[in-house]
Write a structure and sequence with these properties.
Layout (H helix, E strand, L loop, with lengths): L1 H14 L11 E9 L4 E2 L4 E7 L7 E6 L5 E7 L2 E12 L2 E10 L7 E8 L2 E2 L6 E12 L2 E11 L5 E2 L13
Parallel strand pairs: 1-8, 9-12
Antiparallel strand pairs: 1-2, 1-5, 3-4, 3-6, 6-7, 10-11
């Protein structure tokens, strides 16, 4: 009887998930990229997927290009709550951040579905407005501490990717 119990316990341990085993690589992240300017699926967008662990180890990067319906897919990904995946979309010279997701360890692994949004980029300074400019000045260690806080808005349907020129008067006239 003891021998049967020992064999049953050994068999159970052999098929049970092992905490020290390599992660399952059956995870899938897929989704679609839509254009916020046109509200349509956006083909030809480079989607970048980066993986890391909370301590910064196991960094790895994959890329995919969206198809004519704006779809992308990454398969064969390591699962586990300790593996973080970040998505970004690169479109016409601009980078649009997605979110950070994890893929739970289970069989079958769930398919993580997400949507990324891109906009037509512009570098025209008229695409952004300074809504509020607050200046805070206070005494600090025998001098002054100055902090400026800006609230910037973009009322357009474009993504501003340029640098605004200085708004100061030209000293040369």
């Amino acid at each position: 009887m003891r021998r049967v119990a020992a064999l049953a316990a050994a068999a159970a341990l052999a098929v049970a998930p092992n905490a020290w085993a390599a992660p399952l690589e059956n995870g899938i992240i897929e989704g679609r990229v839509t254009n916020g300017t046109s509200s349509r699926p956006q083909p030809g967008v480079e989607v970048v997927l980066k993986r890391t662990r909370p301590d910064g180890s196991e960094a790895k990067t994959w890329t995919a290009t969206t198809d004519r319906l704006g779809r992308f897919r990454f398969a064969g990904l390591a699962t586990g709550e300790d593996r973080l995946y970040a998505l970004d979309a690169r479109y016409r010279g601009a980078s649009f951040a997605g979110g950070v997701v994890t893929i739970p360890t289970q069989r079958p692994a769930p398919v993580i579905e997400t949507t990324l949004k891109v906009w037509r980029p512009t570098s025209h300074p008229g695409a952004i407005l300074i809504l509020r400019d607050s200046l805070f000045v206070r005494p600090f260690e025998g001098g002054l501490s100055v902090l400026e806080s800006l609230t910037i808005v973009n009322p357009t349907d474009r993504a501003y990717i340029g640098r605004a020129r200085a708004m100061d008067a030209d000293p040369k006239g």
